[in-house]
Amino acid sequence: MVIGIYDSGVGGLSVWRELRRYTNARLLYFGDTCHVPYGEKSPEQLETYFWEIVGFFQTQGCQSVVVACNTSSALVLPRVRDRVGIPVFGIIESAVQAAVAVSGGRVGVLATRGTAESGVYQTMFRTIYPQGQVFVQSAPRLVPLIEAGQITAQVTRDALKEYLAPLVGRGVDTLVLGCTHYPFLQELLVDLLGPDVRIVDPAPSLALHVTEELPLEPAEMGPRGAGTGFWVSGDPTTFQETAERLLQEKLPTVQCHPMAGERA
Ligand code: DGL
Question: Is the distance from the beta carbon of residue 91 to the nearest atom of ligand 1 less than 6 Å?
Answer without folding.
Answer: no
